Amino acid sequence: MGFLRIFLFVLLLSGCTAIWRTPAGFRYTPFTGDEYTIALWQKISDTDSPIHIYIEGDGHAFNGRGMPTGDPTPRGTFLRDLVASDTSPNVVYMARPCQYIMSDKCGVSDWTDGRFSPHIIESVASAIKSVSHGMPVILVGYSGGAMVSGLVIETHPEINVVQWITIAGVLNHSEWTQYFGDSPLNKSLDMTRLPNVPQLHYVAQNDETVPIELTKKMARDSDIIIVPNATHDDFGNLKLNFMN
Predict the structure, then answer these.
(1) Sign of torsion over alpha carbons 118, 103, 38, 230
(2) Which of 37, 78, 115, 134 yields a CA-CA distance of 20 to 30 A from 123?
(3) Are 214 and 145 a contacting pair, CB within 8 Å?
(4) CA–CA separation, 3 vs 14, rounded Å?
(5) Tens place of pLDDT for every residue, the chain, 244 residues?
């Protein structure tokens, strides 16, 4: 990493801590893989209990005019606030590649048409394995993080995922982009059916970003929880139903 990238990295972290003060008990422990350094914060205090790993959404991938940004770091704090409220002994917040840390390999495609590409999924899977060490994992994916977590489960059965939870989740990006008339994500993997693991899908009653009908096309009604009066990034005081 050159001097300029290190300088920008420090600035990003400074901005990040202004947005979300690291909760007590958490440590900032970035994971460096073959292509990306992934920002993550973790608290692990009971190796006999499952580890809750929350995967961030697409973040600030596009601006208000629908144009790709130069930095997909999320501006909202919905998922981080949810992580901070999780009182379980083992909790991890995992950003997506190129959020918070702009690795040398990062390019606009990594948060646009290639946001679910094989190398993105492999990088996230490697980060998950680095923090779980074979422990049972409950994966929680928010928005586009639902696609990422589902694809990790599908392509990496060696990760011991005992439950999959999505929140306002994209479960099939082809259906999603077609619904809005957007350009297809041609560099990304997709799911045509959901992984065969215990799962719950929390959807917002008033979600205009990922409408309820898209979730119903993929998931069983018995696995869907509709949160009244919620929006895509505001679920009120959401309490997740963990299998712990």
Answers:
(1) negative
(2) 78
(3) no
(4) 17
(5) 443 343 344 444 433 433 457 788 899 999 999 899 999 999 999 999 999 999 999 999 999 898 999 999 999 999 999 999 999 999 999 999 999 999 999 999 999 999 999 999 999 999 999 999 999 999 999 999 999 999 999 999 999 999 999 999 999 999 999 999 999 999 999 999 999 999 999 999 999 999 999 999 999 999 999 999 999 999 999 999 998 6
**Pairing mode, strands 199-204 and 224-227:** parallel
Q: Are 96 and 124 in contact (CB under 8 A)?
A: yes
Q: In a 3-state reduction of DSSP, which class is residue 62?
A: strand
CB-based burial, 187-213: b 16+ in 10 Å, e otherwise = bbbbbeebbeeebbbbbbeebebbbee
Which two structure tokens, joined as six digits, stand for 189? 């993997």
Let me know: does 233 contact 78? Beta carbons within 8 Å: yes
**Whole-number Å distance between alpha carbons of 168 and 55:** 12
Coil, strand or helix at 28: strand
Rounded to whole angstroms, the Cα distance separating 219 from 43 reads 31
Which residues share a beta bridge with 141?
A: 55, 166
Rounded CA separation 135/162 (Å): 10
Summarize pLDDT for 183-231 with one digit per residue, the tens: 999 999 999 999 999 999 999 999 999 999 999 999 999 999 999 999 9
- Amino acid code (one letter) for 25: G
CB 27 within 8 A of CB 42: yes
Tokens 């809750």 locate to: 52
Rounded alpha-carbon distances, angstroms, from residue 223 to 5, 192, 205, 220, 226 = 43, 17, 15, 5, 10
